[in-house]
């Protein structure tokens, strides 16, 4: 398979489309022109991109939950509750795991079993099985814009149905919805699948309907150094823009050290702008999303509120356009609607209370952002070099070479050689670079930071440090210290 | 003590890799021989691996909420394949949502699991129990 | 009445003591030498000052709740629950309002009614009515150090009973337990009463028993500019040290703007050190306490978790030695033990999670601290001048003149002419100085900050702004904007 | 509309001054004549002030939790002093702890209050109700 970062031709796209729409019976209800007309009938205040753009202008941070259940009436009730009681500004529709893996038959079993038992037996909303009309029932029942959130390597049919179904934003990307979510999908394939998604959205854009696109920032949510997730976000933004996408929200998952978190958002935004401009996509609108802590949570609900609130605070101080909110049930299971609203309200309090405070221009933040940008430059230059100027090709080769390498990823196409760990202040550093092509100076910087920690903890730098860091927040800490060290 | 062989993996369409990688690391560290199948493991894969390595126990993880659907029938398949009474442990976030664990445990015991573990089970418990279950 | 900042003579003190111990029957059980022996039997790890000193050394932030109920067995249960389930590092015993106002008969009615109805009819623990032995039952039943927290203008007998009862820390001061807590008590009187308390603790100190003393930092908890509360804390620290106190914890109530909050703790600590040293009290140990938001809370419990968590985060980033924790029931009433533990656990999560991060040396913090210290210097110089070198006298005259002036205070001895309001970033500034003797430069600084806000909100600087700010956090904001302004 | 006179104050040993100052400010702003007794007001002080100014209503605040003890008997004393049927409103954090407000309201109604308000009652409600209660 030969991948290129190039706008799909209409011939290729429509040939592929024919097949895609046949993947499941609900595909036949998708009619592009009718869908464009339907999308145009959605009022501006219910459009994702419009609300994001306003927030960028106002300097406010919007709040958005995750939520999805098997039965669609309950799903509507759930989302209504989250916008009314939870004060959510933006709504999600989180897709179940069978749909994500194109196992539509199993999703159907899940729907049926849920009807029978009266309990949601799926971990999300099976939008594809429901089809265009039920999706429209969902999206039209709500006051706020709704986005599809999932984790689907091959999301082509899901995109068709979702956008025709009235969703105005769509999460994912060829890297970010592959490496953290699958085992055997090659990057070529998922990039190709996401070119389809992006091209479809480009076609809507050309027909006068703007759909917001959001690469999934946090990846595995577990000790991902900002330079890695930021580099992936920039690549996915460039690939999307190449297919005609005009509205992207680039994302990042909280690491926990405030300076590093604010610096990550700052550098993410400015590097995305820089590269999009460089590729002449100067008309693409950019916003940012900050994910509250994406790793293992404490079991205790009150402690979870602490983690959630700190995430909301960091998002606002970083001036992210929106924050994805966790719930006090996070460590245990899919939240009840009450737990979901609780996380939202705690976050809303901080989103509005801290609105007037910004940390973006602190000298320490600027210094940290310089480092992240230097690292991103090393990585992205190498991607460009490997692809001989083609970022799609470069990305495939970069994963092969371990130039892009995501910690704790399940995919066999990920090298898994880079090892991250926290430094003495809780910032995520790189313990062992693998083949991430950092300059000598940067390698030394990381080494010094981790040697400092090792000396403080009186132990050698090792994988045990990484393991300790994975458990730390669940146990109430940021840095996983050995017993007896404060 | 002779070295015991453990099969580990995350069942079904579940891609949660972190706990799996750490369990494998910790069991090895604790002296077990670990055959780690990674994420998205089918019932058949566990059984094939257990037969092939003459394993002493199977550790099934399920995090994403579909555990009940994915685990159903595993014990029968083990029996059919000749893995008589092999310890079958399951843990993670087994069901959708925050449910009373006693209830959940009951359902998994009825499915034939030797033991089911609630969210947040520590490595210490996992290792200690595995030692107990694989003792001769 | 003639007040002087001078160590009370033994003659004067013991003459007064005789009377004090007769104020209520339980006074007769206090025997100083026996109490010293009892205090010496308390293990070091249950001593307040020892635990604080360790925290200062480790750079950790300890957590402490407020708690007190009418019946002593329930009080013990409550405190046990808070240290076991709530993970409190330090324990309180909050005294009821009748005891605070020396209305011991009404307190007795409250105890009796509580027994009858089985509900706590008092808003705190009536330690004085219970007497030395029951206090010892309380303090000895617990693993952690316990402090008496109250709001008592004349706390002389309460101090006697508390310290003999095994408490190892004692909150309050002649200003901070008068102006926010009473209407008709003159400052001369309360300073005199607190000289008694401090001298008593000085005597314990001389007998080899160190008791921690804590001026009440937040005052009315409502829009108090840091320079005012810091100046009061320094004065009370100096007055306490003059009577022989050797261990003080100076305090501050969160304002909500992170830079100002960190700067307030920074300047509070360094100015307390500076003035204590200047008075040659170089051997007095200093620690700091940060109070989570002390003004009106949101009614919603999840939103309260947001406020609580932000308070914990600010305390840790400011490197306060301890943080006083609020609960999700704050807006409604005295919390249940579960709600109290919930506030503690959220705070504990952040206290340990953010331990490695410090904002104390940020340039913006240093700049804000310079301003606070300059303001404090203006005020304290004037106090010194008014008192002709005597800070006790100077304090009385300063309140008379409005040189010290606390917003929203109930006391008729407080001028109430100074008016605070938030600036555009949520920092508390001075809208109208009254007679607070700030330099012209500082007055101009405050004016500029508030003009900026007025311009942004397109309205004049006025009392309505202050009213809006009072409600703001309860409504989810920090700055009270008029309708329609973001 | 003729100007109505309202007595305000915080009852008992309660020193919470913020709400009191703001209520006084807001009622004046809304056109009432306000006699604000401040904090720590005894039952007698409310009555004396109401008699002296021929007041149209008494607004009692209680924040600190002892409201039940402090307010008991106020209606009787009003009646005895000749303040027949004067509107007696009470609000704040009336009891100790988070209690079911319907219960709390009942207790205060039995004590003879015209109306009792839960924590967090807005200024708008307070003003609107006072206008209604003092209408001729
Ligand atoms: C990180 C994470 C992710 C990452 C995973 C990256 C990766 N590939 O590994 C990403 C973001 C990709 C992700 C995706 C999804 N996730 Co997720 N995720 C988490 C999270 C936050 C942490 C998991 C983790 O790494 N923990 C740290 C490790 C060390 O702990 P652990 O996994 O629990 O494993 C330990 C123990 O459970 C135990 N254990 C595990 N197995 C066994 C077996 C035995 C026998 C024993 C004794 C012990 C044992 O030992 C392990 C090591 O200590 C959890 C919530 C939480 N725990 O805080 C949710 C969570 C597991 N995810 C959840 C869901 C639903 C999903 C998604 C479907 C998306 C969604 N709807 O939001 C997708 C699923 C994709 C897929 N196909 O699998 C839910 C599951 C809900 C439920 N069961 O009701 C959770 C609980 C969050 C929630 N409350 O909603 N997730
Ligand atoms: C600030 C504050 C203090 C300050 C007060 C400074 C001062 N002198 O004013 C300080 C720190 C000194 C303090 C002290 C104490 N406090 Co205090 N305090 C508060 C707090 C945080 C805010 C109060 C406030 O100013 N709110 C803002 C104003 C604008 O609102 P408001 O007072 O509620 O009044 C409005 C409404 O209630 C309504 N309203 C009021 N009266 C009436 C009457 C009518 C008829 C109507 C219609 C409406 C109405 O309109 C007002 C204006 O909008 C509250 C909790 C909260 N609300 O968040 C606790 C709170 C009131 N305090 C409480 C307690 C217990 C105390 C203490 C005993 C100390 C302690 N144990 O912790 C002492 C008491 C001292 C004394 N003798 O009174 C408790 C009362 C508990 C209960 N009822 O069960 C509360 C609820 C906190 C809690 N959950 O424990 N406190």
From TrEMBL, chains A, C:
Name the pathway it acts in.
Answer: Amino-acid degradation; L-glutamate degradation via mesaconate pathway; acetate and pyruvate from L-glutamate: step 1/4
Reactions the enzyme catalyzes:
(2S,3S)-3-methyl-L-aspartate = L-glutamate
Q: Does the keyword Lipoprotein apply?
A: no
* Highest taxon, organism lineage: Bacteria
**Methyltransferase in keyword set:** no
Residues bound to L-glutamate are 66, 100, 149-150, 171, 177, 181
Q: What is its EC number?
A: 5.4.99.1
Q: How does it assemble?
A: Heterotetramer composed of 2 epsilon subunits (GlmE) and 2 sigma subunits (GlmS). GlmE exists as a homodimer and GlmS as a monomer.
The record's similarity note reads:
Belongs to the methylaspartate mutase GlmE subunit family.
Under which name does UniProt file this protein? Glutamate mutase epsilon subunit
The record lists the organism as Solitalea longa
Q: Taxonomic classification, please?
A: Bacteria, Pseudomonadati, Bacteroidota, Sphingobacteriia, Sphingobacteriales
- Identify the gene encoding this protein: glmE
TrEMBL record, chains B, D:
**Keyword entries, A-Z:** Cobalamin, Cobalt, Isomerase, Metal-binding
EC category name = isomerase
Where do the B12-binding domain residues begin and end?
3-136
Q: GO molecular-function annotation terms?
A: cobalamin binding; metal ion binding; methionine synthase activity; methylaspartate mutase activity
Kindly state a single biological-process term from the GO annotations of this entry.
Answer: L-glutamate catabolic process via L-citramalate
Q: Which residues bind adenosylcob(III)alamin?
A: 13-17, 61-63, 93-97
Copy the pathway line from the protein's UniProt record. Amino-acid degradation; L-glutamate degradation via mesaconate pathway; acetate and pyruvate from L-glutamate: step 1/4
Q: Does the keyword Lyase apply?
A: no
Q: What does this protein do?
A: Catalyzes the carbon skeleton rearrangement of L-glutamate to L-threo-3-methylaspartate ((2S,3S)-3-methylaspartate).
HAMAP family, alphabetized: Me_Asp_mutase_S
**Hey, which family's this protein in?**
Belongs to the methylaspartate mutase GlmS subunit family.
This protein is called what?
Glutamate mutase sigma subunit
Native organism is Solitalea longa
Gene name as annotated:
glmS
């Amino acid at each position: 398979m030969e991948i290129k970062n190039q706008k799909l031709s209409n011939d290729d796209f429509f040939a592929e489309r024919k097949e895609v729409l046949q993947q499941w019976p609900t595909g036949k209800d998708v009619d592009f022109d009718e869908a464009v007309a339907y999308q145009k009938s959605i009022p501006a205040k219910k459009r994702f991109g419009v609300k994001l753009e306003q927030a960028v202008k106002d300097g406010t941070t919007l709040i958005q939950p995750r939520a999805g259940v098997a039965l669609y009436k309950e799903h509507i009730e759930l989302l209504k509750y989250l916008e009314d009681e939870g004060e959510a500004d933006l709504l999600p529709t989180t897709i179940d795991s069978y749909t994500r893996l194109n196992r539509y038959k199993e999703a159907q079993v899940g729907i049926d079993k849920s009807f029978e038992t009266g309990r949601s037996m799926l971990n999300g909303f099976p939008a594809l099985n429901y089809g265009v009309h039920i999706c429209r029932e969902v999206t039209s029942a709500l006051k706020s814009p709704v986005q599809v959130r999932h984790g689907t390597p091959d999301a082509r049919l899901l995109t068709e149905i979702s956008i025709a179904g009235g969703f105005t934003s769509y999460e994912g990307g060829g890297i970010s919805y592959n490496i953290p979510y699958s085992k055997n999908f090659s990057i070529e394939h998922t990039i190709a699948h996401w070119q389809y998604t992006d091209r479809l959205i480009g076609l809507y854009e050309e027909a006068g309907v703007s759909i917001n696109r959001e690469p999934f920032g946090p990846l595995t949510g577990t000790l991902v150094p900002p330079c890695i997730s930021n580099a992936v976000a920039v690549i996915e933004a460039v690939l999307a823009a190449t297919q005609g996408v005009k509205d992207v929200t680039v994302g990042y998952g909280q690491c926990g050290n405030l300076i590093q978190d604010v610096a990550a958002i700052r550098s993410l935004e400015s590097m995305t702008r820089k590269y999009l401009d460089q590729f002449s996509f100067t008309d693409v609108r950019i916003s940012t999303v900050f994910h509250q802590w994406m790793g293992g949570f404490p079991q205790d609900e009150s402690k979870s509120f602490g983690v959630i609130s700190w995430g909301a605070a960091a998002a606002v101080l970083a001036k992210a356009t929106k924050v994805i909110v966790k719930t006090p049930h996070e460590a245990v299971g899919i939240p009840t609607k009450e737990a979901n609203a609780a996380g939202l309200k705690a976050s809303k309090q901080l989103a509005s209370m801290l609105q007037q405070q910004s940390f973006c221009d602190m000298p320490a933040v600027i210094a940290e952002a310089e480092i992240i940008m230097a690292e991103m430059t090393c990585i992205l230059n190498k991607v460009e070099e490997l692809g001989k100027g083609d970022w799609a090709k470069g990305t495939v080769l970069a994963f092969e070479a371990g130039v892009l390498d995501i910690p704790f990823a399940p995919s066999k196409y990920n090298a898994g050689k880079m090892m991250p760990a926290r430094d003495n202040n809780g910032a995520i550093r790189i313990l062992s670079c693998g083949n991430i092509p950092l300059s000598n100076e940067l390698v030394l910087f990381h080494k010094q930071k981790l040697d400092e920690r090792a000396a403080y903890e009186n132990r050698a730098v090792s994988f045990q440090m990484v393991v300790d860091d994975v458990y730390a927040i669940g146990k109430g800490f940021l840095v996983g210290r050995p017993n007896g060290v404060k | 003590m002779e070295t015991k062989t453990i099969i580990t993996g995350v069942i079904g369409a579940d891609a949660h890799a972190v706990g799996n990688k750490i369990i494998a690391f910790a069991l090895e560290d604790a002296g077990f021989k670990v055959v780690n199948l990674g994420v998205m493991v089918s019932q058949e894969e566990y059984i094939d691996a257990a037969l092939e390595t003459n394993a002493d126990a199977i550790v099934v993880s399920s995090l994403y909420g579909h555990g009940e659907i994915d685990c159903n029938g595993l014990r029968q398949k083990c029996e059919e394949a000749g893995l008589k009474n092999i310890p079958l442990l399951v843990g993670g976030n087994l069901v959708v949502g925050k449910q009373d664990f006693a209830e959940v445990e009951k359902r998994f015991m009825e499915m034939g699991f030797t033991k089911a573990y609630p969210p947040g089970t520590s490595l210490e418990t996992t290792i200690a129990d595995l030692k107990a279950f694989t003792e001769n």
